Amino acid sequence: MLKTLSIAALSLALIPALSMATDAGTLQKGEKLYKSACIACHSTGAANAPKLGSKDAWAPIIARGMDEMVSVATNGKGAMPARGGTKADDESLRAAIEYMVSRVK
Questions:
Q1: pLDDT tens-place string over residues 57-92
Q2: Max CA separation in the chain (angstroms)
């Protein structure tokens, strides 16, 4: 249990660092893709997608790191198709992930 709490605390501590490393243009680009595609599942939690803004849902995902999050978005996982069912390029996918991570409360 202590290990789980430590991982969650560490991942939440990394959120401000990620947010600071992301510029406003990237977040705007990510928000645009989120609102055009990702919102379908990430706003409601459909198919077990982590809901936008949910600390509990995002903490273990953030703990795996940005490279893993990008890999999941690129290749798909579970009900999520590769690239979220879009033709988004790698840069746009990463921006959408950074946007969603920045919205964790």
A1: 999 999 999 999 999 999 999 999 999 999 999 999
A2: 41
Q: Retrieve residue 46's tokens.
A: 């459909």
Nearest-angstrom CA–CA distance, 3 and 85? 35
| pTM, full prediction | 0.79
* H-helix segments, 45-89: 55-63, 66-75
> 9-34 pLDDT, tens per residue?
545 555 554 544 568 999 999 999 99
Answer whether 37's CB lies under 8 Å from 84's CB: yes
Residue numbers of the domain that contains 69: 2-102
Q: How many domains does one find in the chain?
A: 1
